[in-house]
Amino acid sequence: MKKVPEDRYAQWKLLVPALYDWLTNHHLMWPSLSCRWGPQLEAGSSKTRQLLFYSERTDGECPNTIVVAQCDIMKPRTAAAEQISQFKEGGKSPHLKKLKTIIHPGEVNRIREIPQNSNILATHTDSPKVLIWNTKTQPNRATTSAASESKPDLVLIGHTDNAEFALNVSRTAPYVISGGRDKCVLLWSIEDHITTMQEQTPKSITPTAAGSKQSGTAGGAADTTNVYTRGIFKGHTDTVEDVQFRPSSVGDDSCLLLWDARTGYQPISKVVKAHNADLHCVDWNAHDENLILTGSADNSVRLFDHRKILARGQAIPVEQFEGHSAAVLCVQWCPDRASVFGSCAEDGLLNVWDYEKVGKALDTTNLKQPVKVPPGLFFQHTGHRDKVVDFHWDSRDPWTIVSVSEDANTPGGGGTLQIWRMIDFIYRPEDEVLAELDEVRPQLVSQNTPAS
Fold first, then answer.
1. Which are the contacts of 273, defined by CB distance < 8 A and separation ≥ 6?
2. What is the pLDDT of residue 309?
């Protein structure tokens, strides 16, 4: 991919006080391929404290890890402009504190939390196994080169080839689905294990002699349980890149497939050519389950209505969103507003869209240089200087997003983790914003009137 232009980043930094209600920047020594919000710990008058999970992908000399961090999120309209704009690209965020490190067997390609207990994570790596971790009971590990791997609490068995990225968990029950290079989507239930995992007590690590490896049992749970699949869904002809519960999947065969687990293991509907290239990501709308987002290596995001998938695998997208110049890696609906979603890509952009704004022209006549805005795009986060590989909306703190980039093409390398919330004037109803501005107008005028 091409390097993100430095002038774009420099311009963004100047505009931070005008565009964001809150932002914090955290440099990562190693790139991160996945980030997820965890449970909220406490809520104060000016900030909330919440767990954050992210991965670290190393060069092999140091172990790959899952990091459990504590994040202090400033509440709306409490952070000063200089507080959010004055940060160093290579520095650590004062709002982020690492609490625990879990040594992962292989790089962490995907993290998904279990909604029924968001301290429990499912992860993918470069293997056929899906790993389940109770982050509350897993011991904190030192990331030395001699350290053994932490031991997962559960191992989900069934894939016959590597399953690297396609991973999801049901919102309504502890069911896990996964896709992989074996062209299959697999379903597991961990319902029988959730209670036991919740009741476990944190384990300690037995001290070892300097330079010696710790035993496998010292690195994690005393016993790892294998869980075998409850169903194998077939229909793809190439690697499955992403899966989502209701459930659906997308893959390198450019197909969007939908199954009904109650009726069998073959697709109930299929969009043969959902995009003009490999599909990387998919997401169902939690507010309107008829709507499906897909992102592709053809640089576009498409919106499908599953009721309009026709016979012979044909479907015309409800909308197509063209605002990226490189492959789209992740799409995700906003939990706070049904029509809003985000997309991130290899071009270093994280775009926020509203499909209800499509067809409503944006007035740029008063700008010195009117710009052409892609239909539906209403915010563009340009704070990353390399490809944005993952992001996650915070369902407990509306409009707050965590995003990570893999900074191979920037000085210092590693990665960047940013937590940010756009200023509410951007997404609130226009009449509401104008009414508020009218209220403060006399105060603003008096502050800027020269003394006589």
1. 254, 255, 313
2. 85
For residues 353 and 333, give the distance between their C-alpha atoms in angstroms, rounded to a whole number.
9
Q: Can you read off the two tokens belonging to residue 291?
A: 């709507």
Write down the pLDDT at residue 408: 80
Structure tokens at 268: 């109930």
**Tokens read off for 203:** 């384990």
E strands, 75-209, in order? 96-103, 110-114, 117-124, 130-134, 154-157, 167-169, 175-179, 185-189
Integer Cα distance of 91 and 107 in angstroms: 24
Report the distance separating Cα 298 and Cα 322, nearest Å.
Answer: 10
> What tokens were used for 59?
């060069």
> Is the Cβ–Cβ distance between 272 and 313 less than 8 Å?
yes
Compute the Cα dihedral for 334, 340, 342, 343 and give only its sign.
positive
* Whole-prediction pTM: 0.89
Tokens describing residue 221: 């749970």
Alpha helices of 204-361 — where are they, by DSSP H?
Answer: none
Residues of the chain with pLDDT under 70: 1-3, 199-223, 311-312, 361-370, 443-452
Listed residue (23, 26, 75, 72) closest to 51, CA to CA: 72
Contact yes or no for 274/250 (Cβ under 8 A): yes
